[in-house]
Amino acid sequence: MVDKRVFLIQSSGKPAEHMTTIFSDRAYSDEVSKHAYYRHETWDTKTRDQDFGKAKVGDYILHYCTSDVESFPGQIKNIYEIVAIEGIDPDIEKALKKGRITKEEAERLRKNPHVLRLRPHTTLNRGLELAQIRKWVEEGSLSSAMNNCGRLGFNICEVDSKDYKTIIDWNKTQPPTPSQSLGALLEEDLRHYIANLPTLESVLGEEYRGYRLCKEPDGRITGELYDTKIVGQIDLLYQNDNGDFLVIELKRTEDTSDKAVGQIARYLGWVHENLSKNKKVEGLLIARSASEELKYAVNALKGCKLLTYEIQFKFTPVS
């Protein structure tokens, strides 16, 4: 890997908003993973991000996705190669005419390129998760610069070229995992799986003995995607013989704490107000993984627990 530098970038699931343009069709992470570029319009004014200016065509990019990214949250899954470094002159002119930027800002933006064009180099068999990155930094297997992963406000920095080799060598030992496109089906599949369990206690424990999907007086089961008519559809709504309710909300990714917790809080409030008749109402938020922010948010919500799940595959020969 002669004369190649390695850079670590971090992008989030927030809508991509830049000085000169705002995209309505993509998040910051999508710019990298779906549109093959990394854009940073203020790197030359921020000391912490000036490694952007060191990047050259042919260098490698390790892409860390923050916990709110739908695909591969809290991990490095893809490595890219820089194929071009470009300015943003057309966007500067449009932004100047619309009054989004001043003439002084336009002059600064014209001086340097602000876009790294990328092409996929390696997709890791298994995402390198934040806990593993932290552990390897502590052990000395990765450089201390890799600890920038997951740090609030971090965007880009150069890391040791040995970090690239460490990750590539590790990847050779990892079996391939299912693609994230399969993950897009998991929330529905998980809901069906839970709804069709003969008992909840078989997977959730004895405290959930006797809970069954809610039914109408005529016997119709309405507890799967229960329609509140006001605050949305509850993924799964259960009731036990005592009349207590259990609200289950499923998230196939590590959703933002505000969105996920706010959603189940609305459901719990609606059930309390409209169905419970002074009976107990509990909530379970079930997600593939849990950020620290999500844990704190759920802890602050009375009568709600946070669970994570794992996926296992079983293959059965048919011939």
Can you offer a commentary on this structure?
The protein has helices at residues 28-33, 89-98, 103-111, 130-139, 161-171, 180-183, 186-195, 201-204, 257-274, 292-299; strands at 6-11, 15-17, 22-27, 37-39, 60-65, 75-86, 115-129, 156-159, 212-213, 224-227, 233-239, 245-251, 281-287, 304-308. With 319 residues, the protein is α+β, with helices and mostly antiparallel strands. It folds into 2 domains: 6-173, ph1033 like domains (ph1033 like fold, Roll), CATH 3.10.590.10; 183-308, Trna Endonuclease, Chain: A, domain 1 (3-Layer(aba) Sandwich). The strands form 3 sheets. It has a 6-stranded mixed sheet with strand order 4-7-6-5-1-8. Strands 9, 10, 11, 12, 13 and 14 form a 6-stranded mixed sheet that branches. A two-stranded antiparallel sheet has the order 2-3. The two termini are 47 Å apart. The relative contact order is 0.11.
Nutshell version of this structure?
The chain is of the alpha+beta class and 319 residues long. Helices cover 28% and strands 27% of the residues.
Number of strands: 14
| CATH C-level class of the largest domain | Alpha Beta
Q: Which strand-content bin applies to the residues?
A: 25-35%
Q: What's the architecture of the largest domain, going by CATH?
A: Roll
Low-confidence stretches: 179-185
SSE layout:
Blueprint: E1 6-11, E2 15-17, E3 22-27, H1 28-33, E4 37-39, E5 60-65, E6 75-86, H2 89-98, H3 103-111, E7 115-129, H4 130-139, E8 156-159, H5 161-171, H6 180-183, H7 186-195, H8 201-204, E9 212-213, E10 224-227, E11 233-239, E12 245-251, H9 257-274, E13 281-287, H10 292-299, E14 304-308
Parallel strand pairs: 1-5, 12-13, 13-14
Antiparallel strand pairs: 1-8, 2-3, 4-7, 5-6, 6-7, 9-11, 10-11, 11-12
Helix pairs in contact: 2-3, 9-10
